[in-house]
Amino acid sequence: MRCPNNNGSCYNDKDLTLLSEISMRLMQRKNNREELYLVLQHLCESLEGESSFLTIFDKSSNTISIELAYGLNKTQQDRGQYKPGEGIVGRVVEMQRAVVIPKISQTNIFLNKTKSRLVREGKEFSFICVPVLDDGKVAGTLSLTKEYTTDLYLEDHKRLLSIIGSMIVKSLDVSRKQRLELDRLQRENEGLQKRLAGDSKSFNMVGNSGKMQDLYNLIEMVGPTHSTVLIRGESGCGKELVAEAIHAASPVADRPLIKVNCSALPDSLIESELFGHEKGAFTGADSRRKGRFELAKGGTIFLDEIGDLPLTTQVKLLRILQELEFERIGGTETIKADVRIVCATNRNLEQAISEGTFREDFYYRINVFPIFIPSLRERRNDIPLLVDHFISKFNNKNRTRIKRVTTSALDMLMVYRWPGNIRELENVIERACILSSDGVVQSHNLPPTLQTADASNTASKKGLTFYVEKLERQLIREALVASKGNIAKAAKQLDITERMLYSRISKYNFEVWRFKV
């Protein structure tokens, strides 16, 4: 750079001082955006500029916009939108080459989009714009507007802005990565909160195992649609809860959800319940009655245990699925079935079709979007969560004060096969909460079916000594956990001497250090 001054104040020294100060500011990175603004301010003050702004080139939208500016207000910044090749900023991005305009009044490529740089009071302004490169690719521009005095230093300013631009882009890259990482963490956090909320509130279900996550995803996908859903699973696994979740996730969540247990209605009444009847249609029909389909108008009807429907009723339901209309028993008026149908069954419908007790055409009509609910033995990892949920529920319902479940009791719950699924687990926990006298669910509070080898599928040829030692190991383990590895406290809790406890620790190869916190 030139140093024409003869008074000892070399312009190059000022440049070095400016670069040093800017470098120090960018290295601090306390608040990246605030530091960049101060860099632009310091740049203008040092080079006697009126304004300076930094633009970012967004390749996805092919637009260039002002990211940060000094000397421009918010409205002026918002006006600074360019396309590659448009105006001086656009040309700098397109050509990846700096442009220096000594007098902006003498060029027609200066668009003045921000409405801030005009010739006024006889003053003329210069405009310098340099590309900001990141790994050889243009990331944006850095510009400076200053009052025109001479052409002497404009090229020097251009080179200085190019150096500062290369310094800024590194800071921008760090800021961008930090912002992207923060956005990613925020999305993950929101997703986790949404999932946790969905598990316990929106879906009214408990569980975070892989199979339950898959179930939640299916509910989220089919819920907003109007498709017919067939929920399949063993008795007691929560099919009604899934139906409620599908309705809650649908656009008609504010409309009625009508539930019908098809196996609980006698064959002679089921059609009247579903479709309604006119007065005098049969003996005892003293007045007109609306059926469940009519009551569910605009909402959802849940047909539970649909595998138990008689064949004659299946034919009439098939018409509703095909034509979306029906008539009341004894009536001639055709009623439109504006309703979303969700079905559920624990039966093997494919076997029922082969046996002739279930219509194949009806099966294909309801099997639009099947959802299989895993049994409790397929999602054993959810048992501790379910146990905590039911304990909290029955503490409120029965005014009990259960605080925890012993490890041995939880082990028994984990190995049992649960033929009755979640409904059976709920009943077991309610019984145990009532029987507990010390605020702890013990293994002896559980029903005999969980404590027999045949029922729990844990038959063994081991003798009495094996089970005594197993119980002894469990008691010692619980004492060490409670005392955090303190032998004296554990021995006192077990009501034995420390020497006896050391002997048993050696016998069962306990590593006491693992229990210390």
Structural class: alpha/beta
* Bulk shape: flat
Quick one: CATH class of the largest domain?
Answer: Alpha Beta
CATH architecture level-2 label of the largest domain: 2-Layer Sandwich
Strand order of the largest sheet: 3-2-1-6-5-4
Q: Tell me the strand percentage band.
A: 15-25%
pLDDT < 50 stretches: 1-11, 197-202
List its salient traits:
4 domains; five-stranded parallel sheet; alpha/beta; 20 helices; Beta-Lactamase; Helicase, Ruva Protein, domain 3; six-stranded antiparallel sheet; 517 residues; single chain; disordered N terminus; 48% helix
Tell me about this structure.
β5 and β6 (137-147) form a beta hairpin. The two termini are 66 Å apart. Residues 1-11 and 197-202 have low confidence and may be disordered. This protein has 517 residues and is α/β, with parallel strands linked by helices. The protein has helices spanning 11-28, 32-47, 74-79, 87-95, 154-202, 210-222, 239-248, 267-275, 292-295, 311-323, 349-355, 360-366, 383-398, 407-415, 421-435, 448-451, 453-456, 464-483, 487-494, 498-507; strands at residues 49-58, 63-70, 81-82, 99-101, 125-134, 137-147, 229-232, 257-261, 276-277, 289-290, 300-304, 325-327, 334-336, 340-345, 369-372, 404-405, 440-441. It has a 6-stranded antiparallel β-sheet. The chain folds into 4 domains: 11-179, GAF domain (Beta-Lactamase, 2-Layer Sandwich), CATH 3.30.450.40; 210-374, P-loop containing nucleotide triphosphate hydrolases (Rossmann fold); 375-459, Helicase, Ruva Protein, domain 3 (Orthogonal Bundle), CATH 1.10.8; 462-517, Orthogonal Bundle (Arc Repressor Mutant, subunit A). α2 packs antiparallel against α5 and α18 packs across α19 (487-494).
